[in-house]
């Protein structure tokens, strides 16, 4: 979808959400008997503290200057659900200013339990690529990472900084370089967030390999494919990696390794 198409889709989405709300739901004054369903543009503009003209342009897909703050006010005024709010910001290409880092405690138990119910190595990554859940098979495979109680659970930090990683991952140099490019693609919109900025700074100081890979500004999509390991006790292992997004938590990624 090009920029014109995105602006049009954004405007149509906002308009349809406006027409599905009623003044009674929001406890707005005035008569509840209306010729057309939903709220008036004037009412939403007032709730968002923006001009009616500008709001009208947004619905008509005529402006590209919608700030993230204005979109957040529109989302709140329209009482958008989590999924709808995420869709709103995805269409706009803006970062939600209220996006919060997910901690394990914020993730429903049924999602955390998914990895544990898979027989092959599987782990769940958050938006910053911290492992928030994993199963016994993954703990056995990833020596120096998921088997450590006190170590950081970030996949990039493990790959670039743990001495066990370069020994475990057969094609470490190639995989490590690709991971940096995948991370930039996955988190490009959030690179200014303090936690990500601090992670990049730590890795740049700790690993020359990461610094070189990061400075290439390469971007590739996170894909599956063949993964080979030289495990210290299990020997040579080969898997096919499959990555899945969690439907109601798109910032979470389930990674599964299926034996070849």
TrEMBL record:
It comes from the Bacteria. This is Helix-turn-helix domain protein. Residues 13-85 form the HTH cro/C1-type domain. Gene3D superfamilies: 3.30.450.180, lambda repressor-like DNA-binding domains. InterPro entries: Cro/C1-type_HTH, Lambda_DNA-bd_dom_sf, MLTR_LBD.
């Amino acid at each position: 979808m090009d920029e014109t198409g995105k602006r049009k889709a954004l405007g149509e989405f906002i308009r349809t959400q406006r027409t599905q709300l009623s003044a009674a739901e929001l406890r707005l004054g005035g008569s509840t008997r209306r010729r057309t369903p939903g709220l008036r543009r004037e009412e939403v503009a007032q709730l968002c503290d923006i001009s009616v003209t500008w709001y009208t342009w947004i619905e008509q897909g005529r402006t590209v200057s919608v700030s993230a703050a204005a979109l957040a006010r529109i989302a709140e005024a329209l009482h958008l659900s989590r999924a709808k709010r995420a869709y709103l910001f995805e269409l706009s290409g803006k970062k939600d200013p209220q996006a919060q880092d997910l901690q394990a405690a914020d993730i429903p138990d049924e999602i955390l339990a998914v990895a544990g119910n898979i027989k092959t190595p599987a782990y769940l990554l958050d938006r910053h690529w911290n492992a928030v859940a994993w199963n016994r098979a993954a703990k056995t495979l990833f020596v120096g990472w998921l088997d450590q109680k006190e170590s950081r659970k970030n996949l990039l930090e493990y790959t670039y900084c743990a001495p066990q990683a370069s020994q475990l991952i057969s094609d470490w140099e190639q995989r490590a370089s690709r991971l940096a490019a995948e991370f930039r693609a996955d988190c490009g919109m959030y690179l200014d967030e303090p936690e990500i900025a601090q992670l990049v700074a730590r890795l740049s100081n700790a690993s020359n390999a990461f610094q070189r890979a990061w400075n290439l500004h390469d971007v590739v999509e996170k894909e599956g494919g063949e993964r080979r390991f030289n495990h210290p006790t299990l020997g040579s292992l080969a898997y096919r990696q499959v990555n899945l997004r969690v439907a109601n938590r798109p910032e979470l990624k389930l990674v599964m390794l299926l034996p070849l």
